[in-house]
Amino acid sequence: QQQVKQSPQSLIVQKGGIPIINCAYENTAFDYFPWYQQFPGKGPALLIAIRPDVSEKKEGRFTISFNKSAKQFSLHIMDSQPGDSATYFCAASMLFGNEKLTFGTGTRLTIIP
Amino acid sequence: DSGVTQTPKHLITATGQRVTLRCSPRSGDLSVYWYQQSLDQGLQFLIQYYNGEERAKGNILERFSAQQFPDLHSELNLSSLELGDSALYFCASSVSSGRYTGELFFGEGSRLTVL
Fold first, then answer.
1. pLDDT by residue (tens digit) across A48-63?
2. What is the pLDDT of residues B50-101, one digit of tens each?
3. B107 touches chain A (CB under 8 A)
4. Which of A7-21, A90-104, B70-84, B91-105 has the lowest mean pLDDT?
5. Phi first, then psi: what are they for B27, rounded to 5°?
């Protein structure tokens, strides 16, 4: 049973555009929602994360928007650059108790010059 | 560099064989997680160990087993290999219980190809 659904599967955006990746979760016990970035040949690395007590979090050009009632969250990349081309995974977990991350299926993002 | 070391990076073997993947967590991290990454299913959680004890189990097949040793390194054993076991296997570590921030640190993975 997939508990975190991610879309789209792939995304091509022109440099400077704002790619948006969406995720939806089912388990209301989740209280930690990170995004991981993975470059080819590398392991995923934490990009940004949010707790459900806030609706938005920004770190540099990356923003998470969180909608608790809809059980959805999304990643926005402002002023996207070719170097942002990577696979992005959303995830969810419970910070206290079951610490394992449940990942979405990933979005392959390509930023074209 | 995440500080998590996985060996081997690449492994090619035949169906029916057994392989062992090894992971050394970041210094100080007590928890080790194993994930399987395939093209269609993203990152699937297999199993978690904390300080030598199994802590959580995911979609791990009975043909697969893992353990965490006193020095905190972990091994994932895959036996009776099938073509469908071909995937990238990631190990991740974190500081757990009381000091867990939510962040997992991933190694670069072990790519297993079963022919």
1. 999 989 999 999 999 9
2. 999 999 999 899 999 999 999 999 999 999 999 999 999 999 999 765 556 7
3. yes
4. B91-105
5. -60, 125
Contact state of B106 with A44 under an 8 Å Cβ cutoff = yes
Pairing outcome for strands B10-13 and B110-114: parallel
User: Contact B92/B100 with Cβ under 8 angstroms?
Assistant: no
| Separation between Cα atoms, residue B21 and residue A34, nearest integer Å | 27
Amino acid sitting at position B16: G
- Could you tell me if A98 lies within 8 Å of chain B, comparing CB atoms? yes
**Amino acid, single-letter form, for residue A72:** Q
Contacts of B43 in chain A (CB under 8 A): 44, 89, 101, 103, 106
Strand B74-78 and strand B64-68: pairing? antiparallel
Give the Cα separation of A26 and A57 in Å (integer).
21
Q: What is the nearest CA distance from A40 to chain B, expressed in angstroms?
A: 10
Judging contacts by C-beta atoms under 8 Å, the chain A residues touching residue B45 are: 100-103
Strands (E), A15-60: 20-25, 33-38, 45-50, 56-59
Tell me which amino acid residue A108 is. Answer: R
Residue A73: strand, helix, or coil: strand
Measured distance CA(B35)–CA(B74) in Å, rounded: 13
Q: Nearest Cβ partner of B58 from A36, A46, A100?
A: A100
